[in-house]
Design goal:
This is Dual-action ribosomal maturation protein DarP. It is found in: Cytoplasm. Pfam families: DarP. The protein has nine helices and two strands, in the order E-E-H-H-H-H-H-H-H-H-H. It is mainly alpha-helical. A two-stranded antiparallel sheet has the order 1-2.
């Protein structure tokens, strides 16, 4: 899922966020001409404005991405209740000014949290989703092959790649599905065949080279 970038100007003023989380730091410097300890001068050094803008923009983008997830997935981040609710609410909105304001509020709240931990959880969730998509596609392909004219050969290949498979059960589901299709009946057995294949692939953790080469899809 790709977010639409916002102009950097949107992040020029930290007052747009509830609490920017950045305090001035004190730098200690000695006067070259005066080496005595009591001649220490204190200089207030403001944080780099460009760096802060980039950090805010990155958190804003992450908040927007998380808000697009299903509520059950958002709950997995274990965020404060107000942040979780705001993210769920933002996900229901269209792309408008109200959503933008809400995302700014969320960004301000998230800057007070462990951003790296949130980013890591998002990466794991996306990876898990991409893996699930590959398993889904693989199960669909095996089902279609088993129900094609070359179904017997496909079954032999499937059992060869998945020794754990229940050959008798697969053959029965295959026959029933073909019979239902011939008689124009609801594809009950075809659905059961897909379900069995999906579980088989998930349990064994098996993935063909073709599946591994597929590009990962964004998490919606």
């Amino acid at each position: 899922m790709k977010h639409e970038d916002y102009d950097d100007a949107e992040f020029e003023d930290d007052d747009d966020f509830e609490d920017d989380g950045y305090d001035d730091r004190t730098h200690y410097a000695y006067d070259d001409e005066e080496e005595e300890e009591d001649e220490v001068e204190y200089y207030a050094v403001r944080p780099n404005k460009t760096r802060i803008k980039k950090e805010i923009a990155a958190i804003f983008a992450m908040a927007e991405e998380i808000s697009a997830l299903a509520p059950a997935h958002i709950a997995e981040f274990e965020l404060p209740e107000n942040v979780e609710k705001a993210l769920c609410d933002a996900g229901k909105m269209g792309r408008n000014a109200a959503k933008k304001r809400l995302l700014k509020y969320i960004t301000g709240q998230m800057r007070e949290l462990d951003v790296d931990a949130i980013r890591e959880k998002l990466a794991r969730l996306k990876n898990r989703s991409a893996h699930g998509v590959r398993e889904h596609h693989q199960a669909e392909r095996w089902r279609d092959q088993l129900l094609s004219e070359a179904g017997n050969a496909a079954l032999t290949q499937l059992v060869s790649e998945f020794p754990e498979a229940d050959t008798q059960h697969l053959r029965q589901l295959q026959r029933n599905a073909l019979k239902e299709a011939k008689e124009a009946k609801p594809p009950k057995s075809a659905r059961l065949l897909y379900k069995y294949l999906k579980q088989l692939i998930s349990d064994t953790g098996h993935s063909t080279a073709a599946d591994a080469a597929e590009p990962e899809e964004d998490l919606d």
